[in-house]
Amino acid sequence: MLEAVKTQQTPVIEGAPRSARADVQLDARLAAAPAPMTGVTAPARADALARLKEQGLPGPRHEYWRYTDPAPFNAARPAPVALEAVAGDPKLFADVDKLRLVFVDGRFDAAASDDPALAGVEITTLAQADAQPGHWVAEAYGVLEAQGQKPVRRAFAALNTAVATDGAVIRVTGKADRPVQILYRPSDAGADVIVHHVLRLEEGAELTLLENGLLGARGNVVIEADLAPGAKLHHIAAPRAGVARIATTHLFARVAEAASLKSFELSVDGRHMRSESVVELAGDDAVAHVAAAVLGDGDNLRHDDTVFITHGALRGESRQVFKKVLKNGATGVFQGKILVRPGAQKTDGYQISQALLLDEDSQFLAKPELEIYADDVKCSHGSTTGALDETALFYLRSRGVPRERAIVLLVLSFLADALEEVEDEDLRAEIAGRLEDWLTAKAQG
Amino acid sequence: MAVLDAPEIEVREGVDRETVETVANMGSYKYGWDTEIEMEYAPKGINEDIVRLISQKNDEPEWMTEWRLAAFRRWQGMTEPRWAMLNYPEIDYQDQYYYARPKSMAVKPKSLDEVDPALLATYEKLGIPLKEQAILAGVEGADASPIQGRDDARRVAVDAVFDSVSVGTTFKDELAKAGVIFCSISEAIREHPELVKKYLGSVVPPSDNFFATLNSAVFSDGSFVYIPPGVRCPMELSTYFRINAENTGQFERTLIIADKGSHVSYLEGCTAPKRDTAQLHAAVVEIVVLEDAEVKYSTVQNWFPGDEEGKGGIYNFVTKRADCREARAKVMWTQVETGSAITWKYPSCILRGEESQGEFYSIAIANNAQQADTGTKMIHLGKNTRSRIVSKGISAGRAQNTYRGLVTMHPRATNSRNYTQCDSLLIGDQCGAHTVPYIEVKNTSSRVEHEATTSKVDEDQLFYCRARGMDEEEAVALVVNGFCREVLQALPMEFAMEAQSLVAISLEGSVG
Description:
By secondary structure, chain A is an alpha/beta fold. Chain A has helices at residues 20-32, 42-55, 71-74, 126-130, 137-140, 143-147, 155-163, 390-398, 403-419, 425-444; strands spanning 99-104, 107-108, 117-118, 121-125, 168-172, 180-185, 192-201, 206-213, 218-227, 232-240, 246-255, 260-268, 272-281, 287-297, 302-311, 317-327, 331-340, 348-357, 363-372, 378-386.
């Protein structure tokens, strides 16, 4: 790691001055939240609570909330959802050979889960680890989240660290021979789920983490992933099939020398979604790819991807690929940032955000940022927004492809670059297949 | 550095002679001298009495005084914006003069012949002769220019602003024949109150932002332009701003109105002496563009950037905005920002009229301890509107250079287009280059494209130049000029030359 990494120059980004109303809101939010655990994670939780109280809940005038109203996340309790509409698990990953961990309303359900025995992987739950004196999670819990609060404050991540009810605690020492799946299930119509997963990948370890299912009426997920030199984490999140939902998710990752993080998210039909990725390339030759394919269909629907990638070492490679297809009044938001610290030479940073607006009512709001303090770097970003290519549509129709089918094909081809970020071919084919089914069903509906 | 003997330079295809020559003639900040002249100041600080005094010095009518006072009262309740990526000490708004004018200007000279020779000499030395028979400097030496012989193209009317007052305006009579009004804003307030009342503050309202509101309260002078319907302004218009007095802020206000079907090209230049203490400059430029009219506004900003350690220099907080109020109105901003210790400047276009067009071409160079946070806003409100942004940012030394921009397509701005290209070049490993674009697309038929790159000076290009016998600084200047080419080409002839040499000068000492 470089000396220069210490000289962070970015000021903390403050929001608008706090109002008395926001403080009342925070009190109400905390009063409704579960009581914090009292075991080994207690000091980290107390620290997170203090940070949250110091910064308060964000208001709409907060710079990083200019495009997404934080009100649904600030509310003390979510509005209940109709559970019968979402009965059953999603089909995605159903046929993949994996080790399944089920969380019901944010708590681990051992009976529904597979036996957490997997060669090269130690799996426990946050509740269990918390009760175990001397467990390594005490050293890891909340650490990357706390680091990720600078320069941008992330109130809902601090809240999560303070009061999370459970989560998976995974330490990988070798190459996991099959993926670990975290599956969410709701049982209570008003479930306000707060889960916190801690991942530690030791030197040269490899893991594929699948995450899907339905969180509840409102969800708040934090993943902290610490990758030792040469480790590889492949994270595929697709938790958002089904009815209207509200969720904030945060992925905090530290990527050491020659380690690699690849994170892909598929999102369909979230109602009010804020998905943040905060990644630090801390060692030389580290790699981080963060990608998402988002389908937004429906009024008041908002999907916000906020990404912050920090290059703190030599020859880092980062890629951000975000594709959003929006219709019927949906709003897509992308706030992406590449920060190259002084001395992080030979950085290769790339970022693309594209939106396909399928009708007049939808909108795309983007803020793709670069902040660069080293000269020998290659950084670029691109952002485009537009409608379907009429020429391509005409071409397909002239070849006898019905209009609805032609649109499905063009949307799939638009999303292809993001799907490419799923390295495993079988998983990619699985996701592409589900995506096509979903699009076809929508086109016919 | 080696000074090359110009005629001996072998100029190859693709390398133009001017570039090589200007590179050879590089020097440090050329405009850092001051004019010794007796000045009179308003008392230090700002309060209602100072606002009234400025109004009174300009012989303003009551309504104007009230307008200023309303702005001042509002300003007192505002806080200075700190969201830009700029790091500068607290500004003490009570520790500077808001009005300074040469004593000899106490009685308004009736013509340029009556102006204090010391002032005329100042502009002469700056290369801005205030004699109508003379041509604007910067064109000298442009013998190879393709427009040689076209005298019209060379003539530039100048409004010269010295600290808080306009010293004089050239070619006024000739412009008047064409119906063009070109005078200082203080004169316009007295002579053309109906136009000023109608348009002043209509693009940048007095409540717009902290610095614009401060300007609305204390602006002392600036330029006023009115181009009547269907008139193509017979010559280029320009304003040259010179800050001379110490501890004095300059607050100029420019108002340009291009009536239906008219056309004008306007140039703005600025310099200031070298001083150890930072000086405040908070200007407002408002442009109203009506149906089928076209305004081209070009700036070469060369305020004193402070010394290598970041001591002194101008703090430049500027609000510039053009309102394409009617159909097919067009505005083009071109800026070369090389000076100032702090630059906070976002020339913007409100594209209200259908099929109106906005363009923004910018070169921003920050060297040593300079900090620049600059960009544009393209606000698409009308149907079929078009905008284009080309921004080239260059950072060297320990400088920080940020592009900050907004492109917004409102739901009604259907079938609109935007293309944005922001490139940053880093010279050295101690500087920073940042890009903060905001893109908001609220309808489907519009297309928005944004591209940005950040890179260092290409080693292969440098090596090529070095292999052809250039020293490192020349080579860098040449490569940088190439990097900026698209913007340099958008500048009027008079400015392109100056800008090109400025690019080289600003980067002096950044390599090796």
